[in-house]
Amino acid sequence: MMQKKYNLVRVRFAPSPTGPLHLGGIRTALYNYLFAKKYGGSFVLRIEDTDRKRFVPNSESYIMETLKWCQIEPDEGVGYGGVHLPYHQSQRGDIYRFHLSKLLEKGHAYYAFDTDEELYIKRKEYQNRGLTFSYNASIRMEMKNSLNMTKKQLYTKLNSGFPYVIRFKITPGEKLKMEDMIRGNIVVHTDSLDDKILLKSNGIATYHLANTIDDHLMKITHVIRGEEWLPSMSFHLLLYRSFGWSPPIFAHLPLILREDGKGKLSKRNVEDLDFPIFPLQWKVPETKTIIPGYRELGYFPEAFVNMLAFLGWNPGIQREIFSLQELIHFFSLKRITQSGVYFNLKKANWFNKQYLKKKGGEIFSYLSIELQKRSISYEMDYLYKVIHLTIDRLHFIHEIWKHSFYFFISPNSYEYSSFNQIFHQNIIDQLESCKKSLLNIPQFTSVNLRLLFQKYNKKNKDKMMKIFRLALVGSLQGVDLFMIFEMLGKKESIQRIEKLMKKIREKI
Ligand code: GLU
Q1: How does residue 507 score in pLDDT terms, banded at 50, 70 and 90?
Q2: Considering only CA atoms, which of 17, 39, 27 is closest in space to residue 72?
Q3: Which residue's alpha carbon is at the smallest distance from atom 2 of ligand 1?
């Protein structure tokens, strides 16, 4: 039954090319994609570029590249074609003007000739009286518009070339009952709405007009978009009604909030954020600064998408790792939360780590390149063992060298604070005796080495292990010490211990 109801699902992602997408934007795209795929529907990409003042070059290619990287490509729209061409709003001006003429004919819209200055004065006047000016039923008859002009006056004015806008005529006194799939029932009183502009004085349709007409003509069944558009919903529904069209189903997604409690994520506060906000890197046009994205920072697209899906939705089961196909299967608008969701960088890294565990081959290639760069060669087997030992410490492939270099190169310097703690005469004697024991081990395995260290009391054992770690790694970092010994082998381990002893002697 359900399947049938949603047979014709058509959703759209309708970004404005005003800069790169941030997490919220790409999440909107993802939820639309998941919903479309779940019901065998279509995912449409429409570029809402009517506001030329806010246009930022390269945003469109950024958006398309992001969708590709996330593997959530549209079925239709900009770059993909389709029967509803064109998919750029800037190329649909005639369509908007045609439909707007219908609204004018029906008396749902009117011409307004008030200049910016006149509007400014009115606003000030209201402000001085402690009121807020709203261009609506209570005031429109006092303003310069076609509602208080004869037809003749109107044509004369229009013919004179006087600039005008076209406004939507909101009928006051109505309680508008609306339904949002995520937020449930919402009631808005039309008295609280203003006669919004539908066509700007430059002849270009506003977002509200273009968006509504396009969603209707492109046969969009569900509008899934960010919460910031919730206040526009009443207005859009009134537009549908005035056109005589049935509206799509609306679903407004929760905001993504900053972990530090400083409000919602936005493109504006990128500079002071200590976590990435863009999926791909973005070159700020004015400053040419490059802000790295999740891709450049080493996140896998599957991990990024998995993490993103959970920012505001959950499948209702105790599991967090989902492939794209599984997300499609489990996705439901009903399981989207109403309240804002906090972005958590640790969790994002955790997701990456889970995917990294399955990337042995890629880590191997990365490590091989690191070794090649340093003209170091090792057996494949050895590399795989190193990866096996260190993988649990990594969140990103590029961290492999930082966590494994000591398996390939002997330290040339020692962590200052740890080194200072250990150098005194006794230590040389202790190291000499330990060295002998190490030399005498017939089979230099982690098991035998562990046994050897058991003869020390706890305090001494901890101390010696620290010193050996410093000798082998150069710091107190690294995986299990006995495994490091085994991997390096007897000869290399002893050489490193001697190297440290030499350093200590020089210092004493
Ligand atoms: N162009 C709007 C944006 O940039 C789209 C809003 C909507 O989906 O209706 O987010």
Answers
A1: confident
A2: 27
A3: 15
Tens of pLDDT, residue by residue over 362-397, are: 999 999 999 999 999 999 999 999 999 999 999 999
Q: Which residues line ligand 1 (CB under 6 A)?
A: 14-16, 48, 211, 225, 229
Which residues are the active-site residues? Answer: 267
First-residue to last-residue Cα distance in the chain: 83
Determine contact, residues 407/487, Cβ cutoff 8 Å: yes
CA 225–ligand 1 middle distance (angstroms):
7
Test site for ligand 1: of 22, 227, 229, 252, most ligand atoms within 8 A of the Cβ: 229
- Look at ligand 1, atom 5, and give the residue with the nearest C-alpha: 14
Say if pTM beats, i.e. exceeds, 0.85. yes
Helices (H) and strands (E) in the chain, counts: 20, 14
Quick one: pLDDT at residue 258? 86
Is the pLDDT at 4 greater than 60? The verdict is: no
> What is the model's pLDDT at position 474?
96
pLDDT at residue 128 above 60?
yes
Q: What is the 3-state secondary structure (H, E, C) of 244-276?
A: CCCCCEEEEECCEECCCCCCECCHHHHHHCCCC
Domain 93-199: give its CATH superfamily: Glutamyl-tRNA Synthetase; Domain 3 (3.90.800.10)
Q: Closest ligand 1 atom to the C-alpha of 232?
A: 9
Is CATH 3.40.50.620 what the domain over 1-80+254-358 is classified as, yes or no?
yes
Cis check: omega of the bond before 86, within 30 degrees of 0: yes
What are the pLDDT digits (tens) for 100-123?
Answer: 999 999 999 999 999 999 999 999
